[in-house]
Amino acid sequence: MEKSKQKTELQVSATVLSDTEDNKSNPGTAAEYNNTAGVYQDMGDYEKALEYYLKALSVKEKALDTEYPDTAVTYNNIASVYKDMGDYENALKYNLKALAVKEKAFGTEHPDTAVTYNNIASAYQAMGDYDKALEYNLKALAIKEKALGTEHPDTAVTYNNIASVYQAMGDYEKALEYNLKAVDVMEKAYGEEHPSTAAAYNNIAGVYQAMGDYDKALEYNLKGLVIMEKALGTEHPSTSAAYNNIAGVYQAMGDYAKALEYMYKDLAISEKVLGAEHPDTAAAYNNIASLYHAMGDYGFALKYTLKALAISEKTLGTEHPSTAATYNNTASLYRDVGDYDKALEYFNKALGVVKKVLGEEHPNVATTYSNIALLYKTMGDYDKALEYYEKAIAVQEKVIGADHPSTAVTYVNIGALRVRQNKRAEAVKYLTKACDVFDKKLGPAHPNTKLAHQWLEAALKLPTD
Hints:
Layout: H1 3-20, H2 27-43, H3 46-64, H4 69-85, H5 88-106, H6 111-126, H7 130-147, H8 153-169, H9 172-190, H10 195-211, H11 214-232, H12 237-253, H13 256-274, H14 279-295, H15 298-315, H16 321-336, H17 340-358, H18 363-378, H19 382-399, H20 405-420, H21 424-441, H22 447-460
Helix pairs in contact: 1-2, 2-3, 3-4, 4-5, 5-6, 6-7, 7-8, 8-9, 9-10, 10-11, 10-12, 11-12, 12-13, 13-14, 14-15, 15-16, 16-17, 17-18, 18-19, 19-20, 20-21, 20-22, 21-22
């Protein structure tokens, strides 16, 4: 939606609302509040969106009572804004309110109830509780397969959701299995040239990329892009997302020129369609910054990172997970240019946000611990680096498990440090764990697997402690 259109819609909504402001128990007023909130949400103004959704809820609770299905819709809307804001606890709270209404009104085997199960699963996934996310997605799937059948597009959506959880858990084979189920349904239901089919192709590409099979990832992303450009045009946000996915694969392959080409396509759409101060535009700036960082062009990388940070702080606030991610990116750049004080300042900002918003035991907290550890390692302070890697491991082993590829990356980092300190036993212990995980999850051809084995060989050559 273009910004001019958004403003027009807001002006129309304001006129309607001013005419009905006195009628505090009129469901029509609630509908207008909902519409206004939706526009603000699309613009990335989550505080305003929340304000109007809560106004709508107040009207509905008064006019319809709290157990009317339409009230549950607003509970879900409020939950979606809290999720966008990174407040997953409140997102879950409102999703559970919606679920209570849906289960009472429709029962536990109705497709509308299944939608709320999916929403709850999404909140748990964002919180890093993958077992709960899987539990609720499987509840939704059981309902949809029974009520709609195994070849209904809504069932395919849940296949994709389940695949996403398995991918987050590091179980790429299971993720691929469910994504392939989804694409089979989409091809039968919509054909091979529908945007929903393209989205399913992109999901498969994401799993292949995580597995290190970049040729397959590129193949599926390009299939998706052809459909998006034909069906939606070259200036649609979904096409923009496809450009970004392709850029990510090219970056992973080391083809930075191609990656940059597609990232600038993505950015051009975001700036034109969403505006220069939208969170999605900030994400595009961050992606370009990441690429310039990988290319060693720290000046351009910092320029785009700081642009992204300014948008995130303005639109999302200083305590949002996306802002924290940009703090991490900024810190990494300062680390690589040798400004360690600035790097530590921004890493600590990121750590403070993710701990406050996501809790002490979230995967993003572990990621930030690892980033701080790498900084101390770069500074030559191996003891401090180990301290933070061990903090990361404690979270990862508890939340995502000891056999997750992300956990294994930290095992490699600890093992490599122990090699440098000539601590053979500790090095072998952690690197053996890493090799076992990578061999099982990623296979012998994956770069992470090869690196882990190289470090293990180096550890085994050390003298006995």
